[in-house]
Design goal:
The chain has 307 residues and is α+β, with helices and mostly antiparallel strands. It is built from nine helices and 18 strands. The chain is 28% helix and 32% strand.
Length: 307
């Protein structure tokens, strides 16, 4: 009996397996970019599974099937919407999220890692290291980057299928056109225990620095359980154009005209019928109040030297 057990060979150790979720509709998706990622995984000795479908329900079903198998990570190959879709299924899980930025703007990647660079993204994905970041809920919907009403949804719609402006003057023009389409509305806002009324053209709640390709909140920390709330007190287009131009140049200092507060709970009302930007997607508010809550360190992201 003992000889029989001695003759057994040890099982080969299973190789780490990544789950790759692709979005072929992402603005900068390409077969060449995907080959760069999959070749890097092969060269490093990693196995991978690809989830490639235009049907969101099918993608979600496949992600849920993948998670019980304890993948090394789930990699979002797309823009902010793809990152959001995967991130909402990784709350409080040990499975980390990898980001391979193939969207047009990639606000979440820019906020976490800097300028969009696929080689840098691969380095983080292969690092086998991660860090925990905050997540938020708005209308009960998951978000990692930012939520906006007023100016930002209008800007995103005008930028659809177009490149972001390269220079400050282009951002100023875009801001003026977008601000003219904003429905000015008297809003009551509460940040933690502090409440006040405003009639803003821009109102953004940021967990991460970038929104719509702009570094709106350079002071944002991704793991402190707080968000930054940016709003104007009713200034005109000229003020906002100058503000966005200076934000683009990273020169703006928040003051009386456009302010920034910090908190972990935000309530805004009435928002019925307003367009709301959430991590790259725009929806229409159906309830009277927009409640936002921040939860600290809920998501693990692959990050070189993350610990």
């Amino acid at each position: 009996m003992m000889n029989r057990y001695k003759s057994r060979r040890p099982r080969p150790r299973a190789r780490s397996k990544y789950c790759i979720v692709t979005n072929r509709n992402a603005g900068n998706f390409s077969a060449e970019a995907m080959r760069k990622l999959t070749n890097a995984l092969k060269d490093t000795g990693f196995d991978y599974q690809v989830i490639d479908s235009d049907n969101i329900k099918e993608v979600i079903f496949q992600i849920k099937r993948c998670l019980p198998r304890s993948p090394a990570a789930i990699i979002a190959c797309g823009g902010d919407g793809t990152v959001n879709l995967i991130g909402r299924h990784l709350i409080r899980r040990t499975c980390p999220l990898g980001i391979y930025p193939l969207g047009r703007i990639n606000n979440i990647f820019r906020s976490l890692y800097g300028d969009v660079d696929l080689s840098r993204a691969v380095d983080h994905i292969l690092s086998n290291s991660n860090r925990q970041i905050d997540q938020g809920l708005a209308f009960g919907k998951f978000f990692l980057g930012s939520v906006g009403i007023g100016l930002l949804p209008q800007m995103i719609e005008r930028l659809e299928n177009r490149r972001s402006p390269r220079f400050g003057i282009g951002w100023s023009r875009l801001t003026a056109l977008s601000a003219a389409s904003v429905e000015a509305r008297r809003l009551s806002i509460k940040v933690d225990s502090f409440a006040f009324d405003i009639t803003p053209t821009i109102l953004n709640v940021n967990l991460l620095t970038y929104s719509s390709g702009l570094p709106l909140t350079p002071a944002s920390l991704d793991n402190d359980g707080k968000c930054e709330i940016v709003f104007d007190i009713g200034g005109g287009q000229a003020v906002l154009s100058k503000y966005i131009r200076q934000i683009h140049k990273r020169k703006y200092v928040y003051s009386d005209d456009i302010r920034m507060y910090r908190g972990s709970r935000v309530a805004i009302e009435p928002v019925d019928g307003l367009k709301v930007y959430i991590d790259g997607d725009i929806t229409e508010a159906s309830g009277g109040q927009l409640k936002i809550q921040i939860f600290p360190r809920r998501i693990r992201v692959l990050y070189r030297n993350g610990r």
